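Progress report, Aim 2. The chain analyzed during this reporting quarter is listed below.
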Amino acid sequence: MNRMDKLNQLFKREISNMLLLGEISDPRVAFVSVTFVDKHQERIDELNKRRAYDLKKGDEYLKISSVEAVHLDDQEAIIRTGLESNLIFTAVGPTKIHSTIPLIAAIIEARFRQDRQDPLHIIFAENFSFEQSEISDFRMALERALVRPELISYAQNKLALVSTIIKGIATEVSDPEATPLSVGREKEDYPIVIDGTQLKMAANKIGLGKGFQIVQDISPYLRFKYHFRLLGHAMAGYLAWVAKRGYTNIHEALTDRQHPEIREAVVGALEEISNAFARQLGQSEPSMQKSNLKKEIDALLARLSDPKVLNEVNREIRDPLRKLKPGERLVGSALYVMSVDSTLPITNILKGIDAALAYAESLTDVDRAVLEERKKSCISLRTLPYTHGSSTEPSQTSWWRDTHSPFLLFWLYRPLSYI
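Predicted structure tokens for the chain:
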């Protein structure tokens, strides 16, 4: 593999998987400049050389300009960019988010020294837990890093930590005309949902215009994200892993006609959670009625079955202990169904829980004490009557050990009018 091929692979696997490159830096969003902070020097050099990248949206190619990049180790350049910015988007992964605190603290201190009165917004494009407790944990850790009372007070008044939900999925770009900096996304436009209650300025004054949806209650969006969309992703990923058939992408498992049981279990799990949504919310919310939820199931299956969509099995199954927490996509979905109506079945959701436990058991570096806690809570789920006869022990399998740690990437975004 030559240098450009390696660069192309890095760009697609890492940036494209995070979606933000194609979603937030959209040509519809005017008067913005985007700075990526990354650790791969080749990719940084290529972005700075071109000052642009190619976005394939469906069958259409768009050129996204006004971009640049700095290295993660270039703290001076990052602080300088942070002084010019109104928004910082993180996309480093929940387990790595605290690694950004020293840089954020340095930016806060620099803004304090310059007496900047316009607030800085950090928007977390992360798959945090359903409760979003990572945000309050981040603020507490940041305040400990700031140390000085005047800096802590400044951050409390001038720093906003904001939740967001991104629905779009990156797609593969394999056209002959593709460049090493080509990324793809689905043709459909999915707005980025922002928690408006956490903003310290009007959204349109900090660049959150077209392409963003500002909401005053993000909890229904979080519920649907974790207990429907991410449930489908987790079910497909862990069942693909436990099947031991060499699937590398989710679509391979969901379109395997010789082994339809994975697709059937994913559909079954989505139907089980849909039954609960319809029972609790269907009368007051049209989108939660069974007919509309059926359309959502079909749409999610179509996306997960699309070979152009980047849904690697390794990526979907990483960090199983987090995904087995009570509020998370697997156990949280089962508990939600139980809370709505204890007579509703969760047989298929439990198949995903079994597969996730089996994967966690296979890891050599897993926290065994936490794993035992997860097992106990999952076994208690399987002993209740609404499980409709599912087994009380995790599946016994031989386990695949090829795992990948999340990459580090965060970037800064600023309206040109503030430079």
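The two ends are 40 Å apart (CA to CA). DSSP finds 16 helices and twelve strands in the chain. These observations will guide the mutagenesis work planned for the next reporting period.
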